Amino acid sequence: MFCAAGIGFPLVARETDHLFRLSTGVLSTTPSPAVRNHRITVRVAPVSAQRHLGDHYQNGLGVVQDYIKAHFWYNLAAASGNIFATKSRDAIASIMTQGQVAHAQEMARQHGASNREQVDKETENPQLPRRRTEKSPQQKPSISQLPKSQASQGTGFFVSADGYVITNAHVVAGCAKIVAIDAEGSRFGLSVERISHADDLALLKADTRRRSFAAFCDPSNINQGKTVVAYGYPFAQFLSSSGNVSSGLITALAGIDDNPLHLQISAPVQPGNSGGPLVDLRGSIIGVVVSKLDANEMIRLTDHAPENVNFAIKTSAVFKLLNASSVKYWSMSSQQEFSIGDLTQQLKKYTVKIECD
After folding, report:
1. How far apart are CA 71 and CA 76, in angstroms?
2. Tens digit of pLDDT for each residue in 110-163?
3. Contact (Cβ atoms closer than 8 angstroms) between residue 287 and residue 263
4. Residue among 73, 82, 32 at smallest CA distance from 50
5. How far is CA 194 from CA 241, 321, 326, in A?
6. CA atoms of 217 and 228, how far apart (whole Å)
7. Are the beta carbons of 349 and 186 closer than 8 angstroms?
8. Which of 66, 68, 59 is nearest to 111 (CA)?
9. 3-state secondary structure string, 274-307?
């Protein structure tokens, strides 16, 4: 670490931002030193600091990723003629909902010296979830959440006959309207029952009864080297509307920095797979697809691109969410294993594409 006291603003901003970028293995639940420094220097070098704060909120660097706050800060800098902030603001607006953009614009209109501190507080916002606090300033790779295709799509799966659906919290963040579409093209409106930002999980409810729904694996049967199958709707605006299947292995029983809540998997996943089911060869749920290793960051740190380093949320977090909502779920009792082709047909019956407006 170094002491920033006595160093001029431009160097402080560059150095704190550089050091923080090197140490962003995971998101902190409190603002990083770089973010705090940009906030403090808003008053002495407002345009530059405002644009940097927009960068931090857009990319989740040291704070919970929040597109609304990113747009807000970019908008303030753009109003002062910063062309880079203008481009960043317009780019992020293209992947936000109309409601999110309107919210950010209203924040900018209401902004002033008297309420700047209040606007910049870390308030809870339904954006991407928090990850564990970084424990050291060492260079570590970061994970990249699988964004919704065009910020409007993801995957989910039914977990009960009563119409309960599990997906990622970041899939439905900021949604005014949520719709599920099954493999047959049937559409169901979804309401949010409960969200765990800490675990990046959301429990949704469709006003329908389902004949097919997922059953869960006993956590004690989840082992390193186990074959896994993922199903979802990646790049749904370009690829098959009936869904995509991929397979691989459980390569590790923990995520980045030994995160005990995640499994590392080699099954290929893409934007749009977020919230989808991960099953074993018996067809039982062993995880929820959530993220992949940030390829750009790994290239920057190691000069090598990672291949199929992806992550799924363990079922223990899913059970916690379901139990908190008194939702009954089923465990797989059969030991029969199926071919990937047969599993795909099973997965199609209870996996849905999720669209967010």
Report:
1. 9
2. 775 444 444 444 334 444 443 333 444 455 555 555 654 444 689 999 999 999
3. yes
4. 73
5. 28, 8, 11
6. 12
7. no
8. 68
9. CCCEEECCCCCEEEEEEEEECHHHHHHHHCCCCC
